[in-house]
C-alpha cells in the first residue's frame, strides 16, 4: 500500500512539474490582445532611446519579449494593415498602392474570421484601413466602442485597440490639422475648432536629429513634439493594460504592443529605410501559456519578424493551424515555424506620388532597388507636406543651406542602395557601388528578383491598367492567367531603372513589344536615361500614338525632358481629362515638369479636377495650382 501511495505521489509531483513547464497542455485557450500605435519607429525607452518617456511599454518589455528586428512590410499604414489582417504580401495581391481597394480572390480571409469560427470573440477598436474590400464578418464587433468586455462569460477573445495619438497628423500645425479634419469630415473649414497643441514637454535642444535632416528650428520642434505624442501614447497603453488587470484577465491574456509602421518624422514614414520600416514589438505571455520554446520574460529576441508573420502567430497561439496560403511564419505558439532569415519590404504609390521600390533585409544588410530612380525621394505629397518640418527642410534646400547628405532627399534616387545596418543604422552610406560589396549586392539583387517572381509581383502593372483589369478579375488571378509575363516584365524593369546607356538598344526594341506592360517599362527606361536616350526621340514621338494612355504619358514626359515640349504638353493636357482617375494622376505627376506659364493653359481644367470627389487627382491638381499663385 505504501509503495502504491509513493508511486501515486511521484506521478502527481511529476505532473505538477511538467504542467508548470508545459502549460500548453492546459485546455484553456489564451485571450490575445493587440495594442497598436500609429506611425512610430522604436521611439521607446526599452529600445534604448534616451529621449523617450515610455514607462508603460518599458514595463511591458520587462515582463515580455522585446523584438529587436520587427518590420512592417510597407512604410505606410494601409498596405501594411492589409498585411496584418491577411498575413499576405500586398504586391502579390495588388494592394500595395495607397487606398486602392482592389478586390481579392475568394480564398483570402481576414484572419480574425478563423478565430471567430473557433469560438473566439473578435473585436476591433476601431481603425481598419485595410486597403481592400472590407470583410466585416471577421469581427463580432468593430467600432469606437468595440471591446472584449461584450463577449459571453468565459469566451476567449482576440481584441484590437488602435491608438491614434502618435499619428503623423499629431505634428501638424493648427491650420493644417483643421484642413485635414475638414477633408475627412466634410465640414466647412470655418466651422471647425480643434484643441491646440500643448506647450512642449521635451526640450527641442536635447533631441538627437539624424544627420540626413537639417537641425533647423522647425525640425527640432516637430521632433520634440513627436516625443510628447509618444509619451501620451504610452499613457494610453498603460490605461488599456490597467483595465485588463482590473478585469482579472492579465494572467489569461497574451499582449502584443507594436507600431503599424515607422515614422513619422522626415524620411521615415513612406520611405524604404530602417526609419520607415522598423517598428517596436513587445509580446507578453502569461506563465500558464509559456512553453520551453518561449523566451524568458525580459528577453530581447534578435530574430527577424515582419507583418506577414503576425496572422499565423496569433492563430498558432490560439492552437489553430494557420492556413497554407499564408505567406508568413508563426514565431510563437504551437505551430511555430523556422525563423526567417530575410524580410521583404516595398513602396508603391504613396497618395498622389507614383513610385515603385522593393527591398530585402537580412540580419546585416538592407538592399533597396529603386525601379523609378528618376523620381526624387521627396516627391511632393500633400499630406506629408502638412508637417512644418518637411516644409522647412524643403525651404532650406531651395535656399542652399543643406549639405550633400541632407540635399539627397530632393534629388533623383540611385538605382540601387545597400546599407550595413549594424554599422550604419541611419542608412546614409550607400555601399552599392563599392567593389568590396559586389558579391553582397549581387546576392541580394538575385534574392529580390527571385522573390518578385515567386510571388508574381503585380505592382509592376501600371495602375491605369490595373483599373481595367480589376473590373473583370483580381490581380492575383490575372497574374496566373498566362497573360502576365512576370520574368520578362521584371527583367525589363531592372534594365529600365539601371541608368545604364548600354541597355538603350534593348529598351528601344522592347518599346514596340506586343506586351503593354513591357512597353511601359521600356519607355520608362528611356525617360530615366534622359539625354542619353536622345537617339530614341523619333520612337518616343511615335509612342504618343500608343493605344495605352499610360504608355504615351511616359513618352510625353520623356519628350518634354528632351526639349520637345509642345507635343508633350498637348498630350498631357489631353491626358488629364481622361476618365480614368489613375491616368489623370499619372499625367498630373508628369506635368510637374511644366513651368507656371505652361500650366496656365490648363488652369480651368486643374480647377475642375481640384473639385473632384476622388482624392489623389485632386491633390495632384492642387499642387500644380499652387505654382500659379
Properties at a glance:
629 residues; alpha/beta; Leucine-rich Repeat Variant
CATH class of the domain at 485-626: Mainly Alpha
Low-pLDDT windows of residues: 1-26
What is the annotated CATH architecture of the domain at 485-626?
Alpha Horseshoe
**Helix- and strand-based class?**
alpha/beta
How big is the Rg?
Answer: 26 Å
Write the layout of secondary structure elements.
Elements: H1 2-21, E1 31-37, H2 55-63, E2 65-71, H3 77-86, H4 112-117, E3 121-125, E4 141-142, E5 157-163, H5 174-185, H6 217-246, E6 253-259, H7 274-277, E7 278-279, E8 281-284, E9 299-306, H8 310-317, E10 343-347, E11 357-361, E12 365-370, H9 388-398, H10 404-407, E13 416-420, H11 438-454, H12 463-469, H13 475-478, H14 486-496, H15 504-510, H16 516-529, H17 537-543, H18 549-561, H19 565-575, H20 581-590, H21 596-599, H22 603-610, H23 615-626
Parallel strand pairs: 1-5, 1-6, 2-9, 3-4, 3-5
Antiparallel strand pairs: 2-7, 2-8, 6-8, 10-11, 11-12, 12-13
Polypeptide structure, described:
- This protein has 629 residues and is an alpha/beta fold.
- Among the domains are: 358-440; 485-626, Leucine-rich Repeat Variant (Alpha Horseshoe).
- Helix content is 38%, strand content 11%.
- It has 23 helices and 13 strands.
- Strands 1, 2, 3, 4, 5, 6, 7, 8 and 9 form a nine-stranded mixed sheet that branches.
- Strand 11 (357-361) and strand 12 form a beta hairpin.
- Helix 17 packs antiparallel against helix 18 (549-561), helix 18 packs parallel to helix 20 (581-590) and helix 22 packs across helix 23 (615-626).
- The protein starts with a helix and ends with a helix.
- Mean pLDDT is 94; it is low at 1-26.
